[in-house]
Specification:
835 residues; alpha/beta; Rossmann fold; 6-stranded parallel beta sheet; 15% strand; binds N-[(cyclohexylcarbonyl)carbamoyl]-beta-D-glucopyranosylamine
Length: 835
């Protein structure tokens, strides 16, 4: 990209680049064959399903590319304000089916592939997930860029292109074993290397003070890595708009030391390359815990520096003064992991662009906004000052100054309140000083939001309490999460989607979930109800096949499917669930065979990954698998109770599992789950929630009505008192919980010693997650679920009514609220609507 590009004078060139997407079978076939033969050097006779996928995917991407180019060109031509969603995680999953649906080419490709003997479903199954995220936070980022694209907001995601994404989970002898996710081993049709978009990123080094301006420095270092951009298209649905996720990869080419090589030092010659590459090699696999490793800090900075340089390079093309940046760019921090973007922007504005401190600070705080996703103390990001000072000396200096000016302004308003100053300082004065990233993010942003109403209230009363007092209520707002109706209904649940489309009259609901309201009028329509039930049964049969294929366990789709799928964490209480299962098993064993025949059949499904270093969570997985082994092979029990742990939970697995649930469990200790987003997906797919009064469960309950949700357990405001009590008093399990413990301790599920630490955490460790408190009401809630499920007609009514009332939980609604209340940005549709 050297020199200025001449304007294109060739009309044919321009016309082709703007031409309509061809939809006829002959053109599609031609492009698939073209890729098969010229991109992959295969003949039609030697085409297997893997190559059929690749050739089709490249063909679809050609169609997407054209729109993508036009979108970028259009937004830069009109000088649209753009939202940059900075997230160290994007849990995208697969793209092929999503792109086919967005382009409305699914039937066409199914036809073309059918002609050569392939089923589209099998071809779709060839794609590997892009699993560049851990859980909720990463998937939320993917839903938000999907909504930005589909709602025509000029918006980009920024992240890292990890060579190894979320690890693959194998279950060996009941234990989780991690294997690397080598997702880039085969060609990836959904990324575009942009070798020309590369930025140098510095580490370590020293500072030289500007002789004229005391706060301006030159940062000199010879540790410089290159971050190179890879772009992933985000197909907008029902629009020609295509969004972008720009991922940085640490480029190593320039780091080969030819001198060392010539001197015979082969390892030394590539040492620089290895050191650089490591930066974007792996995703840290933690969910709601802070790892605090130096490599992680360097990852975060590489990400922030490259992203800020890129945003500024784009802005500078407008020729406007830097202080106008907030008029063209809004940056959203997806939790604290990208917070170094704040001092990095300050550094660029002051040291490189020559702004004064005040101008730079004003520009920065108007540009950034920050989303908090957790209240768990162990997840709070903090970096030791000495580490930060060594790796990022300039940024440490800037953070000190930000803190100084902030504390000075507080001191003026609240003189002599030393306690207050200590509490709000960005630098924590503990044994070793630490930088509190949540405070830095808060001080450097103009808006701070939580992700569900209860969570936003809690953060205002806890970690940001003093900041609310100092900076005002208005800065702290709520943006309840949402999920994409494209992936989480239309793509994963084709049968239910067809029914909704029939009821609505067209497909407009896919971009406007308020249309689901019409389902309410169908609730008494016999035929509709029957089809609704059949769609669920079909999804259950599909999941039963998936379970058989992944675990070898046979389950009957006629049973109640009871599902808990999410990261394994103590606060999410999978332990309580499996203890409930054990208690159920205990009761079944006490019954006579005749009594057992009257019992409702149930399949309890678990899936989820534990962070590699999270021992307790891994023991919970082992317990679930041990229980499954005993229960599933107990001939007395048969189909009355089955327990399944589906290995390697992923976005794609979720797309099979969620549409098949009758009841799903969201049972975190009240006040601990910020929002949850799978709860929304389950209800949108006609499932009912069994949950605590926590996170977005509460708002889901408000929307669907109390008949449509099963709540249990203590309330958030009661938790502190219970915890306090249990610190000083022996927890008392009720009879049911004690029966479950007894069953474990009598070696029913193998050597009880393995599981004793799990029991001890409850009985001797203060029962921090309040299992003894909530277990009785949990068991009662299960009974209520069972009674309701037996009332088949009422259950179908609940299911239809729930879906009809779920509009609020579309990520389109969430993104629109962010756009209006935080980003101050408007849709800028490119081309025409395609619905
Ligand atoms: C999740 N956080 C919340 N963090 O737990 C969940 O309640 C919420 O619905 C969701 O965010 C979206 O708002 C979460 O997923 C992480 O995985 C972090 C990744 C990086 C390290 C620290 C945890």
């Amino acid at each position: 990209a050297q020199g200025k590009t001449p304007a294109c004078e060739d009309n044919e060139f321009r016309a082709y680049s703007h031409s309509e997407i061809a939809r006829d079978a002959a053109t599609i076939k031609n492009s698939v064959v073209m890729h098969l033969t010229t991109t992959f050097l295969r003949t039609p006779d030697s085409m297997d399903s893997g190559h059929a996928y690749l050739a089709s995917a490249f063909s679809v991407r050609d169609r997407l590319l054209q729109r993508w180019n036009l979108t970028n060109e259009y937004h830069s031509n009109i000088g649209a304000k753009t939202i940059y969603y900075m997230s160290l995680e994007f849990l995208v999953g697969r793209t092929f089916d999503n792109a086919l649906l967005a382009l409305q080419l699914r039937d066409e490709y199914a036809g073309v592939l059918g002609d050569v003997g392939f089923r589209l479903e099998d071809i779709i199954d060839e794609e590997r997930d892009a699993a560049l995220g851990n859980g909720g936070l990463g998937r939320l980022a993917a839903c938000y860029v999907d909504s930005m694209a589909s709602s025509n907001y000029p918006g980009w995601g920024y992240g890292l292109r990890y060579r190894y994404g979320m690890f693959q989970q194998q279950i060996i002898n009941g234990y989780q074993v991690e294997a690397p996710d080598c997702w880039l081993d085969s060609p990836n049709p959904w990324e575009f290397p942009r070798a020309d978009v590369t930025y140098p990123v510095k580490f370590y080094g020293h500072l030289v003070r500007d002789p004229e301006v005391s706060y301006r420095y030159k940062w000199e270092s010879n540790v410089v890595y290159d971050a190179m951009a890879f772009d992933m298209p985000v197909p907008g649905y029902g629009t020609e708009n295509v969004g972008n996720i720009r991922l940085w990869s640490c480029k190593t080419n320039g780091l080969f030391d030819l001198n060392k090589f010539n001197a015979g030092d082969y390892q030394g010659a590539t040492g620089g390359q290895v050191a650089a590459q490591i930066l974007t090699d792996v995703l840290y696999p933690n969910d709601n815990t802070n790892e605090g490793k130096e490599l992680r800090l360097r990852q975060e900075f590489l990400f922030c520096s490259a992203t800020l340089q890129d945003i500024i390079a784009r802005f500078k093309k407008t020729g406007k003064p830097m202080t106008q940046l907030p008029e063209l760019a809004a940056i959203q921090l997806n939790d604290t992991h990208p917070t170094l973007g704040i001092p990095e922007l300050m550094r660029i504005l002051i040291d490189e662009e020559g702004l004064s401190w005040d101008e730079a600070w004003d520009t920065t705080t108007k540009t950034f906004a920050f989303t908090n996703h957790t209240v768990l103390p162990e997840a709070m990001e903090k970096w030791p000052v000495p580490m930060m000072d060594k790796i990022l000396p300039r940024h440490m200096g800037i953070i000190y100054d930000i803190n100084l000016f902030f504390l000075q302004s507080v001191e003026e308003r609240f003189p002599k309140d030393r306690e207050l100053l200590r509490n709000i300082s960005i630098i924590e004065e503990s044994n070793s000083q630490q930088v509190r990233m949540a405070y830095l993010a808060c001080v450097g942003s103009h808006k701070v939001n939580g992700v569900a109403a209860i969570h936003s209230d809690i953060i205002k009363q806890t970690i940001f309490k003093d900041f609310v007092r100092i900076q005002g209520e208005d800065k702290f707002i709520n943006k309840t999460n949402g999920v994409s109706p494209r992936r989480w209904v239309n793509e994963c649940n084709p049968d239910m989607s067809r029914l909704i489309t029939e009821a609505v009259g067209d497909r407009s609901w896919i971009n406007d979930l308020t249309k689901l309201k019409v389902l309410e009028s169908k609730v008494d329509d016999k035929e509709f109800r029957q089809s609704w039930w059949e769609a669920k049964q079909k999804n259950k049969a599909r999941l039963a096949e998936y379970i058989l294929a992944t675990t070898g366990i046979n389950v009957s789709p006629d049973a109640l499917f009871d599902v808990q799928v999410k990261r394994i964490h103590e606060y999410k209480r999978q332990l309580m669930n499996i203890l409930g299962v054990i208690y159920r098993y205990h009761r079944l064993k006490q019954m006579s065979a005749a009594e057992r025949t009257k019992e409702l059949h149930r399949v309890v499904v678990f899936a989820g990954k534990a962070a590699a270093g999270y021992w307790v969570a891994k023991q919970v997985i082992k317990l679930i698998n041990s229980v499954a082994e005993v229960v599933n092979s107990d001939e007395e029990i048969g189909d009355v109770l089955k327990v399944v742990f589906i290995p390697d939970y992923s976005v794609t697995a979720a797309e099979y599992i969620i549409p098949a649930s009758d009841i799903s469990q969201h049972i975190s200790t009240a006040g601990t789950e910020a929002s949850g987003t799978s709860n929304m997906k389950f209800v949108l797919n006609g499932g009912i929630i069994l949950g605590t009064v926590d996170g977005a469960n509460i708002e889901i309950g408000e929307e669907v009505g109390e008949e449509q949700i099963f709540f249990f357990g203590c309330l958030a405001h009661e938790v502190d008192e219970f915890r306090h009590y249990l610190r000083f008093h022996q927890p008392k399990p009720d009879e049911a919980l004690q029966a479950a413990f007894d069953m474990i301790q009598s070696n029913t599920f193998g050597d009880a010693h393995i599981f004793q630490p799990l029991i001890d955490a409850v009985l001797c460790g203060g029962d921090v997650y309040l299992l003894t408190v909530d277990f009785p009401s949990y068991v009662e809630a299960h009974k209520a679920v069972e009674a309701a499920y037996r009332q088949h007609d009422d259950w179908v009514t609940k299911s239809i009514l729930s879906v009809s009332r779920m509009a609020k939980f579309s990520s389109d609604r969430a993104v629109q609220e962010y756009a209006e209340e935080i980003w101050n940005i408007e849709p800028a549709p490119v081309g025409k609507s395609t619905v």
